[in-house]
Amino acid sequence: MEILKLDHIQKSFGKLSVIQDLSLTVSEHSLFGLIGKNGAGKTTAMKMVLGFLQPSRGEIRVCGEKVTYGKTQTNRSIGYLPDVPEFYGYMTPKEYLKLCGRIAGQKPEQIRKRTEELLTLVGLANVNRKIHGFSRGMKQRLGIAQALLSEPKLLICDEPTSALDPIGRKEILDILSLAGQQTAIVFSTHILSDVERICNQIGILDQGRLVLQGDISDIKSTYRPDTVRIELAGPSGVSVLAEKLQDFPFVSATEVKENAVTVRLAGVEKHGHKILELLVREQSPVLKYEVQESSLEDVFLEVVK
Amino acid sequence: MNGWIAFTKKEFMEQLRSYKALTLIAVLFLFGMASPLLAKMMPVIFSQMPVQGISITIPKPTILDAWVQFFKNMSQMGIIVVLLVFSGTLSREVTKGTLVLPISKGLSRNAVILSKYFASIISWTFSYALAGVTACGYTFYLFGRFSAPHLFFSLFCLWLFGAFLLAVIMLAGTVVSGNYGGLLLTAVVLAVMLAVNVFPRINKWNPVTLASDNSSLLLNAKTVGDLSAAVWTTFSLTVLCLILSLILFRKKKL
């Protein structure tokens, strides 16, 4: 089932065009990472899904229901975590969640039960002080609790980890991947390692366009860079080896750095043995022969070029 | 409806925990208590002042003096306190972004405006009524009686003006962004109404007369009929301000 569908969305502020023709679908149980540079239009896209901004053109549907700007019905199926969530500082976490639950129309009994579960999940179960003394990480965790309170079908997180320290980030990611077992999650970020860690689907947003969308493992194998890195024991024979490698017709480029040479070639599987043969023939003191994995970073840099 | 009730509860909690309600109640209560007392003490205060060569004769203070004092305090300082306490109620939340989460939970934007207006008008009514009752009590204690001509109508007029002002604050909060924009716009609206008040022809309809003609009412210089036009315009303007706030807030960027 399609939980979220954006259909040819455009958005401009005055003359500045922020989103140009954005279409994407998020299905049930997917953990969708929306990647983009700062200013790529991630937050704008999310705010339009929540009805906080009006698209200049196009249609957004949440669980099949159309999103109307200024109306809030569709938000009942959505849990939202902004990049810096703002709470009422004079409330305790329990009071805040109670307010949220009542707004969402939940029964008191249900709210009490969910509040306990969620505060335990995010590690705030025994915190009874007022929110205004909370650290950023604690606020972020409370933010996740409030987003999951009404068991939403879709959880939207806007850069949930950007402002946190490494421990805080790990905690948030762990909680999100746990939550992902029950709901679809759209998660925007510019931290690629976060996406690699928890997402199964990605979309790369660049200058208001979705330049790439799909399964993370498919994308990685499609964008495999075909690079081999050879590390020798010392720097002496490296440049000679590089020259010899360059003579192969299938090698497009070599790069020497200290005692290692990086070779870009067409078809590692097909021609790799020829490199190995060369290494044996030359009796090069090889420390390491490595066919490099493509990282999301390579993919990202390639598509937003 | 659920959202409205929940959010109204939150408004009251906010008023209590941020000491807004306490400030308002305490200040208005003080005015209610001090006004008759001040009227009674006025001759004593004057007689204590060292005036050489001038003889000041002050008539014996009456109940009317007590109420004139009360309305003077309430319509000036009282209104200013109301303005300061409630002016940020909407704009602060918009600036800080605290409304984002409740609205993302499905709270309707109408409920935000209506809850805020309802909660603020309840606080205003309660603290004003407390001040009024206190003034009645003290006037009775000091002067033996407390009733004056058109007293209740006069009290109602000032209450209605306060209710109107709260609606203007709501509208200002939806029109202007920023923490002090709303306060400034409300102050401008007040200033314009005061300026317009010098034209006798418009005077009759001007909401400001509800806060400035209370003494004339007490002194029988004006009748209920003279102010009824202003009462109706104020009531209509209050409703209009609220409707406009509801419409404009629907399109407000959060």
| Helical content class of chain B | over 70%
The shape of chain A, in one word, is elongated
**CATH homologous superfamily identity of the largest domain in chain A:** P-loop containing nucleotide triphosphate hydrolases
**Strand count, sense and closure of the main sheet of chain A?**
6 strands, mixed
Q: Which structural class fits the helix and strand makeup of chain B?
A: mainly alpha
The CATH topology of the largest domain in chain A comes to Rossmann fold
Helix and strand sequence of chain B: HHHHHHHHHHHH
- Binned, the helix content of chain A reads 25-40%
Strand content of chain A is 25-35%
Return Rg of chain B in Å. 20 Å
Rounded mean pLDDT of chain B is 89
* Whole-angstrom Rg of chain A: 24 Å
Strand order of the largest sheet of chain A: 6-7-8-3-9-10
Hey, roughly how much beta strand do the residues of chain B contain?
Answer: under 5%
User: How far is it from the N-terminal to the C-terminal residue of chain B, by CA?
Assistant: 22 Å
